[in-house]
Amino acid sequence: MIQTIAFYLFAALVVASGTLTILARNPVHSVLWLILAFFNAAGLMILVGAEFIAMLLVIVYVGAVAVLFLFVVMMLDIDFAELRAGFAQYLPFGILLVLVLAAEMIFAIGAWKAGGIDMGSRIAPTPSEVPNIEAIGTLIYTRYLYIFEGAGLILLVALVGAIVLTHRTRGGVKAQNVTAQNMRRPEDAIRNVKPAVGQGVEL
Questions:
Q1: Most buried pick, 31, 120, 143, 159, via CB within 10 A?
Q2: Where do the domains of the chain lie?
């Protein structure tokens, strides 16, 4: 009974926070609602026994991606009125895209249910005494090792490409000379003076 109550609670919060993510007028509030949606989605994953995915949602998506979005949105000087100006223009395309994705999901679920395979054989065979994280790690580092390494290489190339594209040489910037700073003597940096009353200090 408590599992059912928890499921409906988490599901309702996910739907509500996802809706508010889209409808919020302030992008900062949208990111905060997105973080709440990730937390509740992690709760749903725990209910179905997928604790590894729940941990990824909290650590990776909430702890890195969503917080990064929040910092970027807060630091950038974005004209929100200009961004909202094209909402009506792209609304028909957005509705069409939502309908296409919904049709694909319905078709995929129908094909999965009509596959003629019983429910037990659809689930990956995992011994009950093996934890979920250990089973996933065994598959990733044995059967899917090259695919996992390829994904890491793709992410590395994307990271290097982003750094190369955003790196630019700026003029008029004085670089820091660490060697000169370390070799500087105290007497070159400090000057003891004894000014008279009301005279002040000459710079």
A1: 31
A2: 1-76, 130-168
